[in-house]
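Structure tokens please, single chain.
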Amino acid sequence: MGRFHEIQQAMAMASVNVHCMNPGDKDISYANNSSLQKNILLKTRQFLEDTVKDMLSKFLPVTCLKVADLGCASGPNTFFSTYEIMDTITRICQKQHWESPELQVFLNDLPENDFNAVFRSVPALNERLKKDEGDLRGPCFIVGVPGSFYQRLFPSRSMHFVYSSSSLHWLSKAPRGDKGNIYMSKSSSADAFKAYSEQFRMDFLKFLRLRSEEMVGGGRMLHCLVGRSSTDPTSNDCCSIYELLNKSLFDLVAKGLVQESNVDSFNVPYYNPCEQEMREIIEEEGSFNLDKIEVFEVNWDFEDNNGNKNYVFEKNKSGQNVAKTVRAAYEYILASHFGEIIIDELFTRYAQYVGEHLSEEKTKFITFVVLMTKK
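Here you go.
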């Protein structure tokens, strides 16, 4: 139970992204991670609009539409998806001459998330909505729901729309991998690959079963998560980013700053599924129709995107950008296991390895947008 709580807390702080950082790095790391997440969120905008439009055509008129954002965190992107959902509903209702329903928005994350910061941001969200939409939308009631999405969160048959971004690749617990590897790698044993895939399968099956109990018939889910491009669990877009972190940790072992046994006992509670796995699990659970899975790529360095016409690759800068993004997501987990004192040097070395890697190969994050309808 203690180990499970430790992993759950680490996952929560990875969502918050601000714990244990030095003052000089905290804002930069969080900004980098927020920029990357926002790039991913922007790519889902059209899928969101199409899904919401079809959902409204099925449910309206309804007095109150209930929406959940799972893994909301607490930072610049907390209300990004909420605003997009609310704005989309208002625009579609106005265009179709439908009366806008009342909205109840449930913001979910683990109990360690800073919900006070979330609630302090609500007035600013309301002001923005009032400025952008005036009196066109119906009332909106925002609720915080602390708890793991691997447990029941909402009353039976109550939810119309469930959304998550950059959440479902986090596992409920770290699988037992191989000594010397913090994640799956090209040198991993068959048992390690099986442990990770089985943990994801059990978690995703449970997630689907729980949401099926909470959603109304015809309710929609849209989930955006990081995966991999092929069935091969050793593909570079899956393993490279962790292999470089693993290499950085062993540099510190060689310097006597980290014990090798501590590396052997550390595994990341994270999994990059392939499309085939997700399709099979959704079909096996059976409560949802899989409407669509779309795949898109995002460069490791958030500055290297199609919208940045002035981008010029600089090995050191790009390595630092990626290192700060990864640090924002994983610092609490790493500091909890290895101690805070090694973090600066760990990510300095990691930035160097990432820069060298990107100078030879432009590896990408593979992101899935998964759309489902409750049967």
